[in-house]
Design a protein that fits this description.
The protein has 87 residues and is mainly alpha-helical. The protein contains four helices and no strands. The radius of gyration is 14 Å and the shape is elongated. The relative contact order is 0.13.
């Protein structure tokens, strides 16, 4: 695997862990697709730094468990005329 891809996977993982952010937010921050972020932190990172991949997995599982709540909040804000895209 090319060095810059490994570095990007580690950077993405650290960003997701530090900010407790979503794959979508990390993709926006780094200017790459959600698919690339997901592949980096689930597949590529596991080969480079498995212990870091485990930490990212925990954050991603928390995000997955909470996504229905965020979706409900966004819908509520939409119908109340509030801009829900903060962060």
């Amino acid at each position: 695997m090319k060095g810059y891809i490994e570095e990007r996977a580690v950077e993405l993982a650290n960003y997701i862990i530090d900010k407790k952010t979503t794959v979508r937010a990390a993709a926006k921050k780094f200017g790459i697709s959600k698919s690339t972020v997901h592949k980096d932190v689930t597949e590529r990172l596991n080969r480079v730094k498995p212990e870091l991949a485990d930490h990212v997995r925990v954050v991603l599982e928390e995000n997955k468990a909470e996504r229905h709540i965020r979706g409900g909040e966004a819908t509520k804000a939409k119908y109340q005329g509030v801009n829900a895209k903060a962060g």
